[in-house]
Specification:
Largest sheet: 5 strands, mixed
Number of strands: 13
CATH architecture of the largest domain: 2-Layer Sandwich
Oligomer: single chain
Number of helices: 11
Order of helices and strands: EEEHEEEEHEHEEEHHHHHEHHEH
Strand order of the largest sheet: 3-2-1-4-8
Length: 311
C-alpha cells in the first residue's frame, strides 16, 4: 500500500499526518503555527512534524510516496509556492521546493480550503457528491470547490465584497466576506455588543471565560435568552446568507458543507441559515440546490484532502 503525507497549515496550528491511499490517517503530529514568526523558521517546524508523523506511523520513509500541503493564501501551483498570505505574512514562499529537498519525494501545494473540500468529498459530509462547496468559518473564510473529484483551483471567495465600504479587511479592501463571516468577524461583532452593553448576559459570559471572547460566546449567551446576542447572531447569519447566496448563484453546487470553528455550532447556525438563504438564491436554482450540512471530518479534512491531492 502507498502512503502520503498530508499537511494542514492553519493560522493557529500546523497539523501533519501520514495517510493511506484509501484516505485513512495512520499517524499525526501538530505544532502551533506561530504566525508572527518568519516563514523560514516555520518551515523548519513543518519539516519536523513530518519526521515526527513518519516516526509515529512505524513506516519506513521509503514507503511515503509524496507530500501534499494545504495552505491559506494565493498560490503558484506550478512552482508550489505561496505568493501571498496576509494572515501569516508569507511572501514568495517556495515551500514545495524546500520539502522536496528535505525528503526527496514529490511535494504539491493546494489552498487549505480546497484541500479540506477534497477531504470531505473523499471521506466526509459530501462523500459521493459530483459537485460540492466546503466553507470553512475560522480565522478567515475558506471556500473549497470540488467538481467530479477534482479541486477547482484559484478561488479566493473569502475576499469578495458583500458590504460596499464596510468593515476593513486585512487584504486591504473593505466589506469582504471574511471581514464579516469569519470567526474573527463574529468575535469583533460580539465585542462591539459587549462594549455597548457591558452589564448584559453577553458581557457576563465573556467575563466568566476570563474576558476572552470566542466564536461560541455569543451562541452561549443567546441560549440564555440574551437579546444582544440574538441580534449579533441575526446580523452574522444575514451576512453569511448573502455571501453563500452569491456562491450558490454563481456555482450551483450539489451540496454545501460548513466547517471551521463557527461550523461547530451545528443546527444552532444551520437551521436559521437555511431559512435566511432562500431569498438570496436565484429562484431558478432553488430546486436544484439540495442541502446545507455540517462538515464531519473537522481538522482531519485538511490532512486527508492534502494527502489525496498528492496521489
Amino acid at each position: 500500500m502507498a502512503y502520503y503525507i498530508g499537511i494542514d497549515i492553519g493560522g493557529t496550528n500546523i497539523k501533519t499526518g501520514v495517510v493511506s491511499e484509501s484516505g485513512e490517517i495512520i499517524s499525526e503530529s501538530s505544532i502551533p503555527t506561530g504566525a508572527d514568526r518568519h516563514q523560514d523558521i516555520v518551515l523548519q517546524d513543518i519539516i519536523q512534524t513530518v519526521k515526527d508523523a513518519i516516526k509515529s506511523s512505524g513506516l519506513d520513509q521509503k514507503e511515503i510516496k509524496a507530500i501534499g500541503m494545504g495552505s491559506p493564501g494565493m498560490m503558484d501551483y506550478k512552482t508550489g509556492s505561496v505568493i501571498y498570505n496576509n494572515n501569516l505574512g508569507w511572501r514568495d514562499f517556495h515551500i514545495c521546493q524546500f520539502m522536496r529537498e528535505a525528503f526527496g519525494i514529490p511535494a504539491i501545494l493546494e489552498n487549505d480550503a480546497d484541500a479540506a473540500a477534497l477531504g470531505e468529498v473523499v471521506a466526509g459530509s459530501a462523500k459521493g457528491a459530483k459537485s460540492a462547496m466546503i466553507i470553512t468559518l475560522g480565522t478567515g473564510v475558506g471556500v473549497g470547490i470540488v467538481i467530479n473529484d477534482k479541486i477547482y483551483r484559484g478561488s479566493e471567495f473569502g475576499h469578495m465584497v458583500i458590504a460596499y465600504g464596510g468593515r476593513p479587511c486585512k487584504c486591504g479592501r473593505k466589506g469582504c466576506f471574511e471581514s464579516y463571516c469569519s470567526a474573527t468577524g463574529l468575535i469583533n461583532m460580539t465585542k462591539e455588543a459587549i462594549q455597548a452593553n457591558p452589564k448584559g448576559i453577553l458581557a457576563d459570559i465573556a467575563q466568566s471565560e476570563g474576558g476572552v471572547v470566542s466564536g461560541h460566546t455569543v451562541f452561549d449567551a443567546a441560549d440564555k435568552g440574551d437579546d444582544d446576542a440574538k441580534r449579533v447572531i441575526d446580523e452574522y447569519i444575514s451576512y453569511l446568507a448573502v455571501g453563500l447566496g452569491n456562491l450558490i448563484n454563481g456555482l450551483n453546487p450539489e451540496i454545501l458543507s460548513i466547517g471551521g470553528g463557527i461550523g461547530k455550532q451545528g443546527e444552532r447556525l444551520l437551521k436559521p441559515l437555511r431559512e435566511r438563504i432562500i431569498p438570496e438564491i436565484y429562484e431558478g436554482l432553488r430546486s436544484n440546490f439540495s442541502k446545507i450540512v455540517s462538515c464531519t471530518l473537522g481538522y482531519k479534512a485538511g490532512l486527508i484532502g492534502a494527502a489525496m491531492a498528492a496521489r
